Amino acid sequence: MCDIIWCKKDFEGKPCNTINYLDPYCFWNWEGTINCAECGAVYYIHMIQGKMYRGPEDRPGEKPDTSPLYADKPLEGYRFYGAGIPDRTRPFECLPRHIYLGVPDMVKFSIRNRPVRGWRPQAPDGGIAGSYQFNWDLKRLSPDVYEEYQQKIKNGEVTEW
Fold first, then answer.
1. Whole-angstrom Cα distance, residue 108 to residue 120?
2. For the whole prediction, is pTM greater than 0.70?
3. How far is CA 54 from CA 43, 44, 45, 47, 48, in A?
4. pLDDT tens digits for 108-134?
5. Which of 25, 76, 91, 105 could make a disulfide contact with 84, Cβ separation 3.0–4.6 Å?
6. Residues 50-59: tens digit of each pLDDT
7. Which of 19, 2, 18 lies closest to 10, judged by CA?
8. Contact at 8 Å (CB) between 46 and 55?
9. How many CB atoms are closer than 10 A to CB 34?
10. What pLDDT score was predicted for residue 54?
């Protein structure tokens, strides 16, 4: 859950009416100034444990320390300012690590270095889901994995339990 600053400053002859979202990751224990994504008004806030302790206080003429992650204008057809718009919002820097990008890993061997059927491409005679029985011909299905498995057996890397 995030906190918001709803900017009501006069901007171009009418109220700004922009909701600036303060994500808890960056503003959990934070004190400083933040700008409005639409009109650029600067507000001072002090947050402790994700709760607004002091502010938002108007600070005209000051330079903001940071920007909100995103903002929108729900009263005007939901105009939206996403993350990373220069001088309006800051970029989203909490991207997942390279191992969490949703791409499946190709697994050839189990933790005991036994071959498993987690690589691609699979042989077409396995059917839609590759539903081979307990015995499958590793040498015919994937000669390169078979050679690698034989090398692991020679090196003594294959264990039973």
1. 9
2. no
3. 11, 8, 6, 7, 9
4. 888 888 888 766 666 666 655 555 655
5. 91
6. 888 998 999 9
7. 18
8. yes
9. 25
10. 93
Give φ, ψ of 68 to 5 degrees: -70, 160
Arithmetic mean of pLDDT, 136-146: 77
Identify the bridge partners of residue 43 per DSSP, sorted by sequence position: 34, 58
How many C-beta neighbours within 10 Å does residue 39 have?
A: 15
Q: Token pair for residue 19? A: 């909701």
User: Where does 12-123 show beta strands of DSSP type E?
Assistant: 14-15, 18-22, 30-35, 42-48, 51-58, 70-73, 79-81, 107-109, 115-118
Handedness of CA 21, 24, 25, 30 (dihedral sign): positive
User: What is the C-alpha separation between 4 and 18, in angstroms, rounded?
Assistant: 10
- Structure tokens of 84? 């990373």
∠116-151-154 over CA atoms, to 5°?
A: 115
Q: Is the dihedral of CA 38, 40, 41, 45 positive or negative?
A: positive
> Which residue carries 């294959």 as its tokens?
158
Strand partners, 55: none
Q: What is the mean pLDDT of residues 33-53?
A: 92
Residue with tokens 């791409």: 103
Using alpha carbons, list the distances in angstroms from residue 56 to 52, 53, 129. Answer: 8, 9, 57
